[in-house]
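To illustrate the input format used throughout this study, we show a single complete record. The first block contains the structure-token representation of the backbone; no residue identities are included at this stage. The design step must infer an amino acid for every position from geometry alone.
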């Protein structure tokens, strides 16, 4: 049960603004194998970004994108991913009705088809609001049913499934061959349900990683939206704990 482990740089968003290359270096120093990363900041070419990442041994695995990028700038984003060697594009949405979920699902199928034509896989990344019920059914379950499993795969987020009131490992087992990237983050005990470093909270990562292996997940991706420590310290603790648990490739 060993996986390559990537980081979602939303965790270090402020640090990246201050020192882009230095932040990437720290991620690599901790031991992460990959990163979910979009095109480089102004003043840096994709070639330069790629050179830095290769020097650090960091693989771009995917990029996250807003809906306007997916509809109006998809080809440019795919060009970027193909240049740096990434294979996935992920997206998150919010829905305010059952109909909105169904309409979004139809749009995601089209985006997924456009991605597939160019050899990229489209993923949907959840938060907790997909566990709102419409006519007794979770938005997430409607989305799963209304999207083509070949065109729209999932990037399940363990923390947000738990925050939505469900068991992350159980949900993962509903996604055979449909969750290539798994966002992992832990949750503190208590009412606030604040984010925690992997292995420092209440989620059962032994069961989660076992489920990920069963369904064919390719990468574990560490993300921590907020931290009581410095962001890099949190990333280090998560990586160290994953290693202790025997989950790091």
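Output of the design step:
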């Amino acid at each position: 049960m060993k996986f390559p482990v990537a980081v979602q740089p939303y965790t270090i968003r402020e640090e990246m603004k201050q020192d882009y290359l230095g932040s990437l270096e720290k991620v690599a120093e901790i031991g992460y194998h990959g990163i979910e990363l979009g095109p480089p900041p102004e003043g840096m070419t994709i070639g330069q970004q790629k050179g830095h990442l290769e020097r650090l041994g960091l693989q771009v695995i995917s990029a996250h994108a807003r809906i306007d990028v997916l509809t109006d700038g998809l080809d440019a984003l795919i060009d970027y991913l193909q240049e740096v060697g990434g294979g996935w594009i992920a997206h998150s949405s919010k829905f305010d009705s059952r109909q909105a979920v169904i309409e979004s699902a139809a749009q995601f199928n089209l985006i997924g088809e456009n991605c597939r034509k160019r050899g990229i896989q489209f993923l949907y990344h959840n938060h907790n609001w997909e566990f709102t019920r419409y006519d007794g059914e979770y938005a997430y379950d409607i989305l799963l049913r209304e999207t083509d499993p070949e065109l729209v795969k999932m990037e399940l987020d363990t923390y947000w499934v738990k925050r939505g009131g469900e068991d992350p490992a159980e949900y993962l087992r509903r996604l055979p061959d449909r969750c290539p990237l798994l966002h992992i983050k832990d949750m503190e005990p208590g009412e606030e349900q604040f984010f925690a470093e992997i292995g420092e909270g209440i989620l059962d990562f032994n069961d989660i990683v076992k489920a990920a292996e069963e369904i064919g997940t390719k990468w574990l991706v560490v993300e921590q939206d907020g931290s009581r420590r410095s962001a890099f310290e949190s990333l280090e603790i998560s990586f160290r704990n994953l290693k202790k648990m025997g989950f790091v490739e």
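Structural context for interpreting the output: The mean pLDDT is 98. The first strand starts at residue 5 and ends at 7.
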